[in-house]
Structures are given as C-alpha cells and as structure tokens.
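Each lists chain and fold; for instance:
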Amino acid sequence: MTHIRVMTLDDYDAVLALMRQTPGISIRDADSSEATARYLQRNPGMSFVAETEAGLCGCVMCGHDGRRGYLQHLLVLPAFRRRGIADALVQRCLAALEALGIGKCHLDVLKDNDAAARYWLNRGWQLRQDIDRYSFTRPGNENA
C-alpha cells in the first residue's frame, strides 16, 4: 500500500536518491539540502512524497509566487508506475494551491523527456506555444 504525505527535510536524502534513479530528472545546485530547506519552509505543506513499506517510491515539489503555482520533480520509480501515484501526488499539490486561491499551475519538462511530456499532455495540461522561458545564471555557477 502507498501512503502520500507531506515532504519534510528529513526526506531529503531519499528524495535525492529517487531523483538520481530517474531518467529525465535534472539535478542542479538548486536541489541542495539548504535550497530544499528554504523551498519547503517558503511553501509549507505543499510538497509530497509517496511511501511504501520499503521506503519512498515517489515525490513532487510544489510552490507558488502568490499568483501561480509551480511543480518540480514529479517522479515515481518505474516499479511503482501505473498505479495512480503520480496523479495522487499532483492532485495533492493542486488542492494545496487551490486552498490558497491559486488556480493556475506551471511546470517545466526537459525537451528530451518524452515520457514526461506524454504524461502531462494525457492529463490535460497544455504545452505553451505562446511563451519562451529565459533564465539568467550568475557567472561561475552554471549548475545553479
């Protein structure tokens, strides 16, 4: 049986291990323990993990800027896929955002992550064609 619960910083090492085991997930300096602690503190009760008797099998991080929600790092280990775990994690995030009056949520998918693109499209999320995302990274920290 899988249990969904709020992610805490105590889950950090297990979540990082999940990320390292999952193709299509990019791990950056922004995924450090310190940065994750800030994210969880800034967005309390909005990120979730899926847990079995054997340990964590999935996670998602969720936050907002006061107007829009953002999802990062939704993943479920391959052995646990097709059981509704990812959908349950996403629904918990969307419900947490809705409780704050936030009705729109964004996420990023790496261009070469076809499985993630299919997942989101099959669940009614729209691929934006009207915007381009631009990023700025301070020189000397290209993995920010």
The mean pLDDT is 94. The radius of gyration is 15 Å.
